[in-house]
Amino acid sequence: MSNASIKEDLKAWALMATGLGMILMLMGSTLYMAVAQSFGFYNLTGESGFSLEYWQAALSDDIVFSSLLYSMKVSFIGAMGSIALSYPLAIWLRKPMAGKEIIIGVLRAPMFVTGLVAAFLFVNIISYHGILNQLMMWLGLIDKPIRMQNDSFGWGVIFLQIWKNLPFALILVSGAVNSIRSDVLDAASDLGAGQFRKLVDVIIPLSIPAVQAAFILIFIGALGDFSFFVIAGPRNTYSLSMLMQLYANEYMEWNTAAVIGMIIILMSGVMAVLTTLLTNPLAFKKGRLK
User: Fold this and answer.
1) Is the pTM of this model over 0.90?
2) CATH 1.10.3720.10 fits 52-283, yes or no
C-alpha cells in the first residue's frame, strides 16, 4: 500500500472520528450508566456499591413481570400487523397506476405525526363521545356510546403502533418487493404458481432480509414507547416504559428504573436474535411449484 493511499485512509478516519466519536461517547456513556446503576452504582438516594438486590427485587416482582408480558405482547402484535399489512400494499403499489405518488404520500403521512399527537388524535376518535361512536350511532349500529378507550387488552395501543409504523414497514418491504425482477415472477407463473404460491414461494423468501429489519426496528421502538401506552393503554397495567418512569420520577428509585431499562434492552436483543434465527430458513425455502 502506497503512502498516498495510507494518507487518504487516515484522512477519512479523521473526518469520521468527530461525528462517530461523539455518537459512541453519548451512547456508550448512557449504556454504561444504565448497567452500572442496575448493579447498585451511582445511587442517587443512598450508598453506592455493587449489589444484585435491585435485579432480584425486579425479577421477583409480579408487577414487573406483568408489565413485561404486556409490553412484549403489544409490541409483537403491532410489529407483525405492520408487516402483514405492508405486503399487500407493496404488491399493489408495484403495479403502475394513476395517482400512485399521491397514494404513497397518504400512506406515509403518519411518519410526519409525532407519537404524542397521534395518541391524542386517536383518543378523540375512539372516546366515549368521539367521532367513531357518533358515526356508529348515526348509522344506527348502536343505541348509545360504547367505551373503547383504554381497553384492558391494549388494542388501542396496538392500533396506534400499526398505524404509526406501517409507513416504515412499507418502505422496507416495498424496496424488497420492487427489487424482484418481473421475469422471476413470470417464470413462477409459467411453472403453474398462482398468486398465493408466488407470494409464499417467491416474494416472501426474497424479501426476508427487509422483513427482519422492519420487524426488529419496529418491535424495539414499540417496546420502549411511552406516549402510546400512557395515552391509549389500559389503566390497570403498566408498560415497561411507564414503570421505568414511575420508579425514576415518582419513587426516585433510579437503580430499579435502570434494571427495567436493561430488561428492555435485553428483550430487544433476544427478540432480534430470535427473529433472525426463525426467519432465516424461510429465505432459503425450496420446493416444487404446483
Assistant:
1) no
2) yes
